[in-house]
Amino acid sequence: MKAIMCYLFLLCCIFSVKAQVIELDPANLKYSKTSFVQTGLNEFQLKINEEYAGQFSSNPIAYVKKNFDIQEFIASIESKNFDSFEVNFKSTKGFLNAFYDKKGNLVSTFQQFKDIYVPKEIRENLYSKYKGWSMVKNKYVASGKLDRIDKAEYRIRLERGKEHQNIKITPKVIMNSGVASN
């Protein structure tokens, strides 16, 4: 009798656990008038909720192009008399400012992120030139026209004991000449 009661109890537990499973649709960057905060006359801010660490900061321009519909955004704004739009996409690691013309074409971008995953080539170069040093923080700053990055720079702070050193690295230069330091 005890065995049957235990078996029935386990069966009830299994069915109740299985009944609590909820399948969710994949998340997309959806917005409404309330999810954007108007910070200036033609400036708007949207907070990004990443599904995993580094999703937005690894390639913010591609993320915005894939997940943000500027035409839908322009249609949702009550006053459509703007000549341009500045949309600031913020995450926990940094931000991307995207500048659009009145037709919704991407004109330029500016991005800044802190304490992000540094590309392999830069890590290897730092390791070979600065043995014994530890990277304690970094900052990535980039800007460009359209969806290109024309200017990019990593600012890295290294420490070894009580010594510290600030280094600036331009990704294009790293391939040819190595690390630039101040």
Written overview of the protein:
The protein has 182 residues and is an alpha+beta fold. It folds into two domains: 29-109, no CATH class; 118-182, Nuclear Transport Factor 2, Chain: A, CATH 3.10.450. The protein is 27% helix and 34% strand. It contains five helices and nine strands. Strands 1-2-3-4-5-6-7-8-9 form a nine-stranded mixed sheet. The longest helix has 18 residues, at 2-19. The termini are far apart. Residues 30-34 and 173-182 have low confidence and may be disordered.
Give a nutshell description of this structure:
The protein is an alpha+beta fold and 182 residues long. It has five helices and nine strands; from the N terminus they run αββααβββαβββαβ.
The assembly state of the depicted protein chains is: single chain
| Widest sheet, order of strands | 1-2-3-4-5-6-7-8-9
Task: Give the beta-strand count.
Answer: 9
Strand content: 25-35%
Overall shape: it is flat
Helix and strand content put the structural class at alpha+beta
Portion of residues in helices?
25-40%
Query: What is the overall pLDDT average?
Result: 80
First-to-last CA distance:
81 Å
Question: What summary fits the major beta sheet?
Answer: 9 strands, mixed
* Unreliable sequence segments: 30-34, 173-182
Helices and strands, in order, run as: HEEHHEEEHEEEHE
Count of separate DSSP helical elements: 5
* Domains, number: 2
Radius of gyration: 24 Å
